[in-house]
Design a protein that fits this description.
The structure holds two protein chains of two kinds. Chain A is mainly alpha-helical. Chain A is built from 16 helices and no strands. Chain A is elongated. Chain A starts with a helix and ends with a helix. By secondary structure, chain B is mainly alpha-helical. Chain B has 21 helices and two strands. Chain B starts with a helix and ends with a helix. The chains are: A mainly alpha, B mainly alpha. At the A-B interface, α15 of A face α8 and α14 of B.
Chain lengths: 409, 502
């Protein structure tokens, strides 16, 4: 997320982070052979989808919202491939690449404008903080429109691309749930995450593009849309986000699941190993309706509950409190890792391994200790060389007595 | 002509060049030394083609030296020693070139000692007579003692003495073992000889004595490698030595220990070496070296010391690879030996270049210098990634082969060793970040000069090797394979017989 925005778009949306999903799908036979392994993948996916979505609710950095959104969507993909719906997982990978790349590049367009404005006035405000934005729709109409398309797509509003792919994953989990209830739990977590997705994405759009502008009096004059070389790719991605669903239209709506057929030879062996659960058309329609309802609820909830006009610029904003703070701090995951793993390992390495074992024990006691011992032995030997004849005679007598004694014995 | 004399030429030429350096005017000393070492490299290069991979021990020369005591001047090369010889002749010119501005006092003596050291190192790798081997083992000790003690840092006398006494202690034990071995074999055969092949062929069953002889060899080599807990001379010696000394120490001298295991300790006493208890102990010590060396490196404030401890970790991989005794793991061990020489050698050069600019090696004294010295930063990044063992760099090839090979023999150990690769990222990446990235917050660093043409000439050959061996190591592996195979075939049956006898 700290990378340059086009890099974020590429690695977060399309390629690098989804490599794990690709690998599970690629190794589908191995995962199909281990139902427990697959269920673990799905469970991790469901938890990730929900967990990351809660974090995205309270982030202020526009790219950070998108980054946690990506983690959440990756959770869906893992839920899909863990369920055995490999085509659905890959389908979501593809549609997600469309709308998330659009969102990242759109946020780049916003940040570009913000940065430019702050640069001209030499202000040091954060160009990525949504509290410094607001009302940008007036200055960046293309970006705003295209990012709304992506938002509706990720939220799961039909007939945009994200609707079809997300629905297929949730449907597959629900179908398995008719046999084993644990899948219903995963499904419910996915639905809850879908609600949150619609909510936090609408929040992002409201705070960035709507309500009053909070960038600053002087800066406002310098806000403007990015050049065509930047918005052009957004238009392409917008079209794909809109219509990407045609890649794999479900038979339920009379479509042709082209992607599923394309992948069928790859997953044929695995498909034969998993139980086939056919849901009735009525149940499927109910699921679809429910999913649309949940998405609409998330969007409407955000519109109704959030007050963009009550926001103040980031440097004036009060600190977060309560649960909001926990979410803003990302459930303290980084802090917990730091305290539970990073610091103990550093302490162990520095205090125990280096300073105690290496410096004191091995080098101090054993290595330099033996050097000291030999020096002490030499010192003792030198003490015997007194230079007094009487002492030497006494030693000589003792020696003779010892030899004679040993001989007689 | 070349085949018969090349090894002797490699052995003798640096010593002659050292005399020339001493005779030359002071301001010419370094140029004469560089020319001499380049000639040495040129002599060694045709070995790459002349060497017959399947030919076993070759290019041999065997003439009586002290016939009355059964001592011969016997030299030869096989796939195990070939690349160590090439590594040596490759790195010595770079070390000399890298010392041009670092060494400013008693230059003639320094460069002459570097060349004498070269003779000693080549001698260790080509000797096929245990007496010759022992002599060469100690010959290289003396110049290194002076290089550390005269041109080293603050604490150089302590470090030089520690290095000398520690290594010499081991080598004397080895001498005792060599003499005892020759005597025991002479009792059986009636032939009094230090010849490697004679001893190998007639060592037979030594009973419990073998344990003691192996122990003496083991100590000598373990100190050199170094294996935990015999490693504490290394951080001192590496840190105090001048750049060229550190490079040669890390790149070549440490490899003498692992080479000793491959050439002598294991083939001569396979039953002891592969006795389950000994095996367990050595594999455990290798793993301790990998993890412990890495963790201790992680908390070093001194960049040079960090690299020194990282050597303990890398050499742990070599030991694991040797003892795992599969073709991949042994070839991997050989590759790690070469790669460590290239990557760690380059790291020591880079730290030395930092030191020449700022007269400090503390990691915290730097930060953000990528903006000031972009070339330096680029090279340091490539070299660090290779030391971590990222794919497409040489470091990956060796460690990967060791891990794959060791997994067949010791699966648990291979898993633990794989964790060591992560530890490598844990110590090098933060150090890299703190030196070249982060904010440029120290005014002293704002005007550092970037790499000079001479410094680039030192570093670029190493970077080229990093990429070459990372992408296409096959030419090396092909030349190593028959010798690695022979090594395994020599060692394993004897061990198998021991297992069957129990």
């Amino acid at each position: 997320m700290q990378g340059p925005t086009p890099v974020s778009a590429l690695i977060h949306a399309a390629t690098m982070v989804t490599a794990g999903v690709y690998l599970v799908a690629r190794c589908n036979v191995l995962f199909a052979l281990s139902p427990l392994g697959s269920a673990t993948v799905a469970g991790v996916g469901a938890v990730t989808a929900l967990f990351a979505a809660t974090i995205a609710l309270k982030q202020w950095d526009v790219k950070r919202v998108l980054a946690y959104s990506t983690i959440s969507q990756l959770g869906y993909m893992f839920l899909g491939v863990g369920t055995g719906a490999y085509a659905a997982g890959i389908f979501h990978l593809v549609t997600h690449a469309f709308f998330k790349a659009l969102l990242f590049l759109g946020s780049g367009s916003v940040i570009h404008a913000m940065h430019h404005a702050y640069h001209i006035t030499h202000a040091h405000d954060d160009a990525q903080d949504m509290r410094n934005m607001g009302g940008l729709q007036r200055y960046l109409p293309w970006t705003a429109t295209l990012m709304w398309i992506a938002t509706l797509a990720i939220a799961g509003i039909p007939p945009l691309s994200g609707f079809f792919s997300k629905d297929e994953i949730l449907g597959a989990a629900f179908a398995l749930g008719t046999a084993e209830p644990v899948w219903l739990v995963y499904w419910a977590m996915g639905v809850a995450a879908a609600l949150l997705t619609a909510f936090y994405m609408t929040r992002l759009m409201l705070y960035t593009f709507h309500g009053p502008n909070r960038t600053g009096e002087r800066e406002r004059a310098h806000l403007h849309e990015a050049p065509w070389v930047m918005t052009g790719p957004l238009v392409v991605l917008g079209a794909l986000s809109l219509a990407g669903g045609v890649l794999n239209l479900p038979e339920l709506v009379g479509g042709k699941p082209w992607l599923e057929h394309w992948l069928a030879p790859v997953t044929a062996l695995a498909d034969r190993m998993r139980p086939v659960v056919e849901l009735s058309a009525a149940v499927e329609w109910t699921l679809v309706g429910g999913a649309v309802l949940v998405a609409a609820l998330g969007i409407a909830g955000a519109v109704r509950l959030l007050r963009p006009e009550a926001l103040v610029p980031a440097r004036l904003a009060p600190p977060e409190t309560g649960l909001g703070r926990v979410l803003w701090k990302k459930w303290y995951v980084d802090e917990i890792y730091d305290a539970a793993i990073v610091r103990p390992i550093h302490w162990l390495a520095r205090e125990v391994l280096w300073k105690t074992i290496d410096a004191r024990l091995v080098d101090g006691l054993l290595v330099n200790g033996s050097a000291t011992a030999f020096r002490a032995l030499g010192w003792l030997g030198s003490r015997l060389q007194t230079g007094e004849v009487g002492f030497y005679v006494a030693l000589f007598v003792v020696g003779v007595l010892l030899v004679v004694g040993a001989a007689l014995h | 002509m070349y085949a018969q004399t090349v090894l002797t030429a490699l052995l003798v030429w640096p010593a002659l060049a050292a005399v020339a350096v001493l005779a030359a005017p002071v301001r010419w000393a370094k140029h004469v030394a560089l020319a001499g070492s380049l000639v040495e490299f040129a002599i060694s290069v045709p070995l790459w083609w002349v060497f017959q991979p399947a030919g076993g021990m070759q290019l041999q020369l065997d003439v009586p030296w002290i016939p009355g005591w059964g001592i011969h001047y016997a030299v030869g090369v096989d796939g195990i020693s070939l690349f160590l010889i090439l590594l040596t002749t490759f790195l010595v010119p770079l070390s000399i070139l890298g010392s041009y501005t670092y060494i400013t006092t008693r230059e003639r003596a320094f460069y002459a000692l570097m060349l004498v050291l070269t003779s000693g190192m080549i001698g260790v790798f080509v000797a096929l007579d245990l007496f010759l081997f022992y002599v060469m083992w100690d010959v290289m000790l003396i110049p290194m003692y002076f290089i550390i003690g005269m041109w080293g840092g603050q604490n150089r006398l302590y470090a030089a003495l520690k290095f000398f006494v520690y290594t010499f202690f081991g080598s004397l034990l080895m001498l005792v073992a060599i003499v005892a071995l020759v005597y025991l074999v002479a009792q059986r055969t009636g032939v009094y000889s230090f010849s490697y092949f004679h001893l190998m062929g007639n060592v037979g069953e030594l009973g419990t004595l073998a344990f003691w002889l192996f122990g003496a060899f083991f100590l000598a080599f373990a100190i050199k490698v170094p294996i935990f807990p015999f490693h504490t001379w290394l951080p001192d010696a590496h840190v105090e030595a001048p750049t060229a000394g550190s490079v040669i120490l890390a790149a070549v001298l440490l490899k003498m220990g692992t080479y000793g295991f491959l050439r002598f300790a294991l083939p001569l006493f396979p039953r002891v070496a592969l006795h389950p208890a000994v095996q367990t102990a050595i594999v455990t010590l290798s793993l301790i070296g990998i993890i412990y060396g890495g963790l201790v490196a992680m908390v070093q404030p001194d960049f040079k010391k960090l690299i020194a401890y990282s050597s303990v970790a890398h050499l742990g991989f070599v030991m694991l690879g040797i003892w795992a005794l599969t073709l991949q793991s042994v070839q991997g061990a050989l590759m790690v030996m070469i790669n460590h020489g290239i990557s760690t050698g380059a790291l020591f050069f880079l730290v030395g270049m930092l030191y020449e600019r700022r007269h400090t090696r503390q990691i915290d004294a730097f930060g953000g210098i990528a903006k000031v010295v972009p070339l330096f930063a680029a090279v340091l990044t490539i070299v660090s990634l290779s030391s971590i063992g990222l794919p497409a760099t040489n470091g990956f090839v060796g460690e990967f082969l060791v891990l794959v090979g060791a997994f067949r023999t010791y699966p648990a150990a291979a898993v633990i060793a794989a964790v060591g690769v992560i530890v490598a990222a844990m110590y090098l990446l933060p150090a890299l970040q703190r030196v070249i990235y982060n904010p440029l917050d120290k005014p002293e660093n704002a005007r550092l000069p970037d790499l000079s043409a001479r410094e680039l000439a030192v570093l670029l050959p190493l970077v080229a090797c990093i990429v070459w061996l990372g992408v296409y190591p096959a030419p090396l592996l092909r030349r190593m394979e028959p010798s690695a195979q022979r090594f395994i075939e020599t060692v394993r049956p004897a061990a198998g017989a021991a297992a069957a006898a129990r």
